[in-house]
Amino acid sequence: MNGLHDLGGIQGLGPVPREENEPIFRAEWEKRVFALMVSTLGGGAFNAGEFRHAVNERLNQSQYLTLNYYARWVQGIEMLLIEKGLITRDELETRFEKLAKEAD
User: Fold this and answer.
1) Alpha-carbon gap, residue 50 to 52, rounded angstroms
2) What is the DSSP string of 57-82?
3) Does residue 42 sit in helix, strand or coil?
4) What is the DSSP string of 7-41?
5) CA-based nearest residue to 76, from 97, 93, 56, 96
6) Is the dihedral of CA 23, 72, 30, 51 positive or negative?
7) Which of 5, 14, 25, 49 is a plausible cystine mate for 30, CB 3.0–4.6 Å?
8) Distance separating alpha carbons of residues 90 and 77, to the nearest angstrom
9) Which residue would you say has higher pLDDT here, 71 or 10?
10) pLDDT tens digits, residue range 14-51?
11) How much is the average pLDDT of 73-95?
């Protein structure tokens, strides 16, 4: 069964834009998300297959189509950490609120 992300071989979608000397990270937060994925995956919180499944097949269509690459990673990591009982939704939201206040 093909999902929304399975686009291989489909014609007529137009060219894939490619920027000369394209940066790996476009924003500082993307570096942090990469580090978070490496540490949670490397620490055994989940495996590569679970992560791939979370950021591709398990996101709803609007999330998959509107979120950028690293934002999909954030959604997948959150989903897996909550499901595995390593963090609660309340703990996550409390941390987000604290970070938002510190940014002001």
Assistant:
1) 6
2) TSS-HHHHHHS-HHHHHHHHHHHHHH
3) helix
4) -TT---S-PPP--TT--S-SSHHHHHHHHHHHHHH
5) 56
6) negative
7) 25
8) 15
9) 71
10) 787 888 998 999 999 999 999 999 999 999 999 999 99
11) 96
